[in-house]
# Entry
Amino acid sequence: MTEHLDVLIVGAGLSGIGAARHLQSEFPKRSYAILEARDAIGGTWDLFRYPGVRSDSDMHTLGYRSRPWTSAKSIADGLAILEYVRDTATEAGVDKHIRFGHKVIRAEWSTGDARWTVHAEHDGEPVRLTASLLYLCSGYYHYDGGYQPEFAGIERFGGQVVHPQKWPADLDYTGKKVVVIGSGATAVTLVPAMTDRAAHVTMLQRSPSYIMALPSEDAIANRLRRLIGARGAYFLTRWKNVLVSTLLYQLSRRRPEMIKGMIRKVTAKQLPPDYDLDTHFAPRYQPWDQRLCLVPDGDLFRVIREGRASIATDRIAEFTESGLRLESGDTLDADVVVTATGLRLLAFGGIELTVDGHEIKLPETLAYKGMMLSGVPNFAFTIGYTNASWTLKADLVSEYVVRLLKHMDAERLDQFVPVNDDPAITEQPLLDFQAGYVQRSIHEFPKAGSRRPWQLGMSYAHDVVGLRYGRVDDGTMRFSRAGAR
# Structure
């Protein structure tokens, strides 16, 4: 017999563990399982193993709402975050519900049965489960490998080429010349981290990104923790950081020249006198068109001041046997080249969805409140904020799913499905974000609508009101009982 579960969660990373914790707390008698394609808890924080891997969000907002972050460091390294996620799972007993090595391939919804039939693979063998609710917490990028452009002559390079998503455990760069290609969050993390052993590290960028220094420790949070305890300090610090980041984002969108000037002034103070800011630290786009890069304690600027790292702003003409030749004619010698050139997006882990035998083509669907799909029953997913911590949205999605299930229990309902019957709604990209990794693949994702509830909002404060307290039965969400037509 096929095993049936009330809720099937896909993904045992930050989102999946949080979702399971919410469901288990509110519905202790409901059956659930987490299917995880890999062999460990942690998702992103278990996958990435490159030097210095860390969050570019503070842990008072990246942490779970109900489990305070108590470490002195607010900008945490990857290992600390991984331990936090795993400890959360163990503490709640969620880890006992995880089935590792289960890669979900396909999910089929039957309206007559009011359930999903989920097909997965485990050790090369097919696995089939059914579930009343399918909840995808698989993130939105490809776990099998990152994005790497075609580089002329790369096959004749005599050194080693490494992508951060596939970092070799035995890579020894001691005393070697390293070139890191890229200017995003991964690159600005790798460059200072690799200077501990490398002879020199060069960050090669086609164009600059906005980079801001932030203290690794939040002095206010640490003082509050001593005065009022961990839980109260966490609550106040979380909202303090939400409000500060929201203000910075709104000013970036409304008064970009002011924010550009502020960032430039702060950057100039941390670099050597007469440093060429216009070449290396003056992006062509406006602040928050792409994600703002944060460097804890200004570590990137420090290693540049000390001469252990440098920045080259140019385009690659070709790889040579000993490094790279740039379009300007300059050359960079390298023993190791790190291609921090971005991610590849993958919607819902590549899972095929069908509803009553009809294939769901994601670009033909609209995202309801940024967490469900038009015409797809009993289905939820998590996509976090691009301008704030991922977990802020993940927690709200879990809370909303709980509210939805409680409503269905009270009304003795079996099915829910968002329906767009407003001809005035126009389609828009799901993510209004100019980063290259988004622009390369966003056409493969569901669409957003021109107004609520068909938008993926990027305001935590607005979402708190709408998702935590707004109506569940809002006229767009349709409910029914099994077998009802």
